[in-house]
Fold this protein.
Amino acid sequence: MTDRCAPRPESGTGRILALDVGDRTIGVAVSDPLGIAAHPVETIRRKREPDDIARVLALAAEREVVEIVVGLPRMMDGTVGPQAEKCQAFADALAGRVDVPVTLWDERLSTRAAERALIASGRSRRRRKEVVDQVAAVYFLQGYLDYRAGGAGAPGPA
């Protein structure tokens, strides 16, 4: 996995895949080839980890990604809790199966921000539930892209 304290990587070098890993689903987003904007892709319904990783690998190959960013849901005090440990384990397993860097990115509150945005857009509760993980992945991927481009980007490296 990429060093969490690595210097800011160069922007505009290819598509980046973002994963919002949860217990039941994985929200997936991807950047444009220039690394400017994030877009939703799909929500993977979790089955078994090997199946989940196989789907991520297929998406990465289809989109010719140069990096995968896995959201790390730190606690509000910045510590790593049980859910973040699960995300780290998934990222480690993924890193062992892919030839591109796997980077952890602090995504605390991204799901709440996504939920608020979907409510504001007037989406029904059922439709919000279907896409909230994708939107959360878009939210933190956009922060990562902004960080790479030299902007503030929130919340920051994991």
